[in-house]
Amino acid sequence: MIRDARERQDVSQAALAAKISMYRENLIRVEKGRVNLTVETLMRISEGLGVNITVKFVGASKGKLRPIVVRATELRPGTIGNPIP
Predict the structure, then answer these.
(1) H-type helices in the chain, by residue range?
(2) What φ, ψ does residue 69 adopt, rounded to 5°?
(3) Structure pTM?
(4) What does the pLDDT look like over 15-53, one tens digit per residue?
(5) CA-to-CA dists, residue 53 to 5, 14, 21, 43, 64, angstroms
(6) CATH 3.40.50.11810 is right for the domain spanning 2-74
(7) CB atoms < 10 A from the CB of 63, how many?
(8) Residue 47: C-alpha distances to residues 4, 12, 25 (Å)
């Protein structure tokens, strides 16, 4: 998802990494899914790309929180961050 957004904007890994103060090697690991991101790092990347995201935590009722990331364009009415009008 991050790589796709970066490539759609024709931004190099080096340029994005510099913009968000991240080593290029770490950005490569992120794009390949080899690291777990903090919400803070995810927000830096989304801001660097100018992309809106929403982070949802699922599994709270079972005592196991698992964050998932949803692009703002994928939100459906009634979901977190996109309440029913």
Answers:
(1) 2-8, 13-19, 24-31, 39-49
(2) -110, 135
(3) 0.66
(4) 999 999 999 999 999 998 888 888 888 889 999 999 887
(5) 12, 22, 20, 8, 22
(6) no
(7) 6
(8) 15, 15, 19
